[in-house]
# Entry
Amino acid sequence: EPEVTQTPSHQVTQMGQEVILRCVPISNHLYFYWYRQILGQKVEFLVSFYNNEISEKSEIFDDQFSVERPDGSNFTLKIRSTKLEDSAMYFCATRGGYNSNQPQHFGDGTRLSIL
Amino acid sequence: AQKITQTQPGMFVQEKEAVTLDCTYDTSDPSYGLFWYKQPSSGEMIFLIYQGSYDQQNATEGRYSLNFQKARKSANLVISASQLGDSAMYFCAMREGANDMRFGAGTRLTVKP
# Structure
């Protein structure tokens, strides 16, 4: 069964540094998402991406964050000037079509630890 | 405002028994979808079941069924014949129209042998 692939599985970074989290969506999927889950807490929506542009973003997704799909395959989340509170699990999710009944398929996540 | 509410932070069930995990939602959009995901201790998010707002029948997927009560705006997940491997966090989520999915706070289910 096709999978969403995220790399790295674990990223440890010094506070203030930039990180790039990578996601390879399922090949025929059109809608891409990033979510964040702080340890022990709920899954929080960050941003959705369709047709090479952001379609929706949450209040969490401020100027510190950016997304792009530079080569038509990888979907990346960049976090600039990382802070301690950015430590979390970051999930990429993708969805095939417009129909609202289609679930989002999640990758296994990247655990980001800011020191 | 909270769109998805899961009022049970933790639930316990005896192995082989059935358990119901509660989920209520709030929307004024007539077109919406409700989803349940399982998150085991390994961390991945596993899609379990979907219910559409226009569906006439409750969704079922194997041991999972969704008790959809539209007037009450509830979409409770029922797991029958619980297994030890069902121990996990369970998240209810909703998508309104073409908007993006939002999650509840989750319920931690522990299955006792």
